[in-house]
Amino acid sequence: MTRPPTAAQRRVIDAADPVTGRLKGTESQLDALVKRGLAFRHPRPPHDHFLTPAGHRVRETAAAVPEQPPATDPAPAPGVFTAHVGGTEEPADTGPARVREVHSAWQGLLELRRMTNPDGATDRPCGWERGHLVPAAALALEAAGHAPEAGGAPGYRVRATPQPEAVAVHAPEGEALRACASTLEQAGWQVGEYTQPRTGTRYLLASPRRV
Asked: Cα 5 to chain center, whole Å?
């Protein structure tokens, strides 16, 4: 891509669904994004348009480095879903609205798997998950009903690791840790249980399964 997206195209990209990357815009805007390699048209009806990995990078770069930062702190963008990764001081939101958001995000992720995995499989992670390991694993856990560690309450914590395509999952040892392992395996992750050398604490190491 030699030229950055136009202002109108950037608005279309920024308004894409945060999980599936589904786009809304005029036919000319969507066609232009396809020609730039930032979007693709799904071959199956209703032939919606979705962000490509390059399109996701454009949106993430724009969010990280705004072109014109506002003078005051902006309000959170409506409709943006963030998975609970655990380890916060504030209690996690577990109300009915959050449950609906998590369910919708998980269904959207399954649809993204169907659309982007070469064979349309939904039982293993897709490219987006391999590029967003921590939120992807956290979403799988939260969608299955696991509670994150928050506000002093025990629960899971998902953290990045130096290993490529692997996250560490911490949870109370015993049944809770085994339940997290089972959930991730059912969600298409390869999971192993390990012991921290210094503390003797058990934890999980999870990687997205490819086949």
From this structure: 24
Amino acid making up residue 204: L
**Mean pLDDT score across all residues of the chain:** 85
Region of 91 (left: φ > 0; alpha: ψ -120 to 50; beta: rest) is beta
Summarize pLDDT for 107-153 with one digit per residue, the tens.
Answer: 989 999 999 998 999 999 999 999 999 999 999 999 999 999 999 89
Residue written as token pair 């956290």: 138
CB atoms within 10 A of CB 58: 21
> Residue range 57-81: average pLDDT?
48
How many domains, the chain? 2
| pLDDT tens-digit map of 131-144 | 999 999 999 999 99
* Same domain membership, residue 198 and residue 133: yes
Residue 60 in any domain: the answer is: yes
Same structural domain for residues 48 and 129?
no
Full domain range(s) for residue 34: 7-64
Instruction: Give the predicted TM-score (pTM) of the model.
Output: 0.66
* 3-state SS string for 140-208: HHHHCCCCECECCECCEEEEECCCCCCEEEECCCCHHHHHHHHHHHHCCEEEEEEECCCCCCEEEEEEE
Using the 3D structure, point to which of 17, 49, 64 is the last residue of a domain: 64
